[in-house]
Every structure is written in C-alpha cells, then in structure tokens.
Amino acid sequence: PCAPAGMGAVPEPCPQAPLAVLSKVELRVSCKHLLDRDTLNKSDPCVLLLMQSQGQWMEVDRSEVIKSNLNPVFAKIFTVDYYFEEVQKLRFEVYDSHGHAGVGTHDDDFLGGMECTVGQIVAQKRVTKPLFLKYGKFAGKSTITIISEEISGNNGYVELAFRAKKLDDKDLFSKSDPFLEIYRVDDDRSEQLVYRTEVVKNNLSPVWEPFKVSLNSLCSCEEKRKLRGVVWDYDSRGKHDFIGEFFTTFEEMQKAMGENKVQWDCMNPKYKIKKRNYKNSGVVVLLDLKIHRVYSFLDYIMGGCQIHFTVAIDFTASNGDPRNSCSLHYINPYQPNEYLKALVAVGEICQDYDSDKKFSALGFGARIPPKYEVSHDFAINFNPDNDECEGIQGVVESYQSCLPKIQLYGPTNVAPIITKVARVAANEERTKEASQYFILLILTDGVVTDMADTREAIVRASYLPMSIIIVGVGNADFTDMQILDGDDGVLRSPKGEPVLRDIVQFVPFREFKNVSGAA
C-alpha cells in the first residue's frame, strides 16, 4: 500500500491507506428446515446480515419477511464490498418476525445464526452451513445457503465502428463536415459524453474510425440503458450545426455482431414538425461491434481457480541464536515472533481460497540433518516427498519443531525457492486450465546474497501464474529489497530483460507490526 520513500528516509507507516475495493458481491440467501416457533402456523422468517468491524457485530441490512415458511428463499439481495486483503467476517441471523413489532431480537424468536467470511463465500460460490442457536447448539436440522455473484463492474470493453449515409448538407459551398457523439443517459436523465469521433471533411456519407470504450463508461454495464447518438456538422469557430440524433441501447447495438449491421434514422425534431414529408436527415449505421471481456480477479476465483500458498522462511545466522531472546526466531511462549505474525497475517487470507487447506512450507539458509549441509530449499517438516502442512497451524507447528534440529547458517539465497515454485507453476500453466495460482511468501531478515540470480528468477516467474510477497522481518536495511518490488521502475534481469508483470510486493514488517489486525 505504501510507495517506498527516498532511499535515505525511513518511510512513514501508512496503515490508513484505503484498501482497493476489488468488486461488489451480491449474496442471495435461502434456508431449509427452520425451527417452528409459532404454535398455530409456521415461523415468519427474516434474515439479518451483520459484519464485524473493530470486533463489534454491526447490522448491515435485513431481508423481507416471508410469511409462514420453514424453507424460505429470500428475494432480498445483499450487496457487500469485497476486499481480498482483509478477512471480512459475516454473520447471518434468522429471526421469526411478528408483523406489528418488526423483527424481535428475543431469544425465543431467534431461529439460528451462521458465521463465515466473504472470502469463503466467493471461493465456493455456494455455501451451505448448519444454523446454530446460542451456546453452539444446533438449531435442529436447519441450514442456510448463501449464493454469491460478482457484480461485473469492469468486465470489459467494446469496439464500435460507425458510418453514416446521405446526411443533410449544412454548408453552402461544400458538403457537411460530420462528426458523431455518443452519450449515456443516466438515471437522473443527465447525459454523459462517452465518445466523440474525428471530423470527416466534406462528406455526406462518412466512415468514422473504429473506437474502443469500456462497457462501464458506455452503459454502466447495463445493456438496457438508453444511449443517444448526435451527428454534427463541424464548424471551426465551435458553432457546430446540429444534423440529427438517434436513440439506442447496448442491447440493440449487439445485433451488429458478425455479418449483421444495425442502422438508425438520424432525426432532426424541428424538421419533423415543420416538414410534412420529412423522413430523416440521413442514417447512421453500426458496421461492426466486438466485445472484449476483461476477466477480474473474482471471475477467476468464482470460476474455480484455487490459490496454492507456499511460505519460505529465512534460517540464516543473522537472525540470531533461536535460544536467545534477542533472536528473531526466539520462541516466546506468550507472544508469537515476527516470523509467525507475518506468516499468520498472510496465511489467514490465502486459506479461504485453497480447498484442501494444505500449505507448502520451506526453509533456506540453514544446515540441516542428517549431514548438516547447507540447504536453500528444504521442507521444514523434513519430508522431501511432501512439503505440505495441514493449515496455518500445521506450518506453525512444523516451524517450531524444526528450529531446534537445524543450525542457522547462510548465505541468504532466495532464487532456488523462487525457481522451485516456478517449476510447479509452469506445469500448471501447461494444462491451460487457469485452475491454480501460486503465491510464494518469503520471510527474510535481510539482504539477499544472490541478487542477480533472484532477479533472473523473478523475470522468468513473471510469465507464470504466480506472485511473490517478500516480508522483511527485523530492523535491517532493506534498500535492495525495494528494487525487487519494481515500484521504483521496472525490475530487469541482469541481461536487461524486463518483467512481464509486476509480481513482487515487498513489505517491511516493522511498518505494520503495531497497527490493527485489519491493516
């Protein structure tokens, strides 16, 4: 979130940097087998959606009440902002409503609740969970189902090619010089200019250059939104003459795909009133329309793409002897060290997007048993055939049990681990399925020794479905690390080849360790 400060200055922590809203997500809710609280007829259920903010549950919205129904499908659509980098906790509560008093929040009206995260819902697209009463008791066989759908905000752009025929001639000594404007008509009837073509000189049947506009700008991604086209005769003093106008929608424009064309009469309302046999002031033809879809992060996640998470931990001697309380690897029974804090902060986000919840955990820069040779990519569970641990907790346990068995050494080489994950990502890419994306979290206390090899490895990896997060632990000088991030300019390999995508994010942990969890 923070741009690196000048090389000499210490950057100010900026936990308040606003998170980027990736998308808005729509949630639809239904329940099955609700408890029957009413003696004479069935419960009248209503759902409340709560979100956790600063540890407090706040009601965000509520559904309509459905009369006398134990298997309700609610019409209400809940909309939530989706932030990838935050664990967004949701709570759904179902109540039996009593018309006149609205939704009572008394225990005897409570039909059950369920908690989950936005990440879990978008990763699974459809989540069904049991409802619980107070104190963790099951609410009978009651279940709640949440179905999520992304509101496609920026899902692409469209390429349009217009021409006109037989436009009215507005000039005395030559033909009109026409240009076309397209406006979007907003809900408040105001008009937003979407595009203005170039002027075609001295031509009553102009062909304008094709142009591209985003669907968001053309019609706010709503196919039925009204659009207005206006044709003008250009005047160098800015007093353009109105030739005519037409109205359409993006839905109608789409008929111009393939071989078809769509055309509109270009009308001048004044002439229509004055002239008895007025037909039009020319026609405007849409020759071609191409839609280019741009897939968002959520399109991939909701299409079933899983995130595979690997963590790599720096076990070089500069961390200090783990038995000494000054060491960055010191295991304090009361307080996790910075390595563990950074691991949990990133791992908690990624785990929602990985259905098997198994994480690869590697170490580098230590001498390892049995021969105590230096390794730059060993499994911290010491199982060379399977470096995966069960969940974040499994990584934490492997880390704690491996520390006494290894000897911290050096140097700090990270290229071998980047290359190792890149090999797996390359195999995945060959399937052309886009079903796995790889995130490598490198936790290190200092400057990388194999800088040239690391830059080469990152440039190679930038062609693959992977990203690298480097967290600098402790108080070393991380100036070199900022170079890998590429925020100061494009990262290049030693031979000068630039990265294809900016896949590295470097974060000094000291800037974040004292801010709130969400930040």
Automatic annotation (TrEMBL):
GO terms for biological process: cellular response to calcium ion. One of its GO terms (cellular component) is plasma membrane. InterPro entries: C2_dom (IPR000008), C2_domain_sf (IPR035892), C2B_Copine (IPR037768), Copine (IPR045052), Copine_C (IPR010734), VWF_A (IPR002035), vWFA_dom_sf (IPR036465). SUPFAM superfamilies: C2 domain (Calcium/lipid-binding domain, CaLB), vWA-like. Pfam families: C2 (PF00168), Copine (PF07002). GO terms for molecular function: calcium-dependent phospholipid binding. The keyword Repeat applies. Residues 3-131, 138-265 form the C2 domain. Keywords: Repeat. Residues 308-507 form the VWFA domain. Belongs to the copine family. This is CPNE7 protein. It comes from Cephalopterus ornatus (Amazonian umbrellabird).
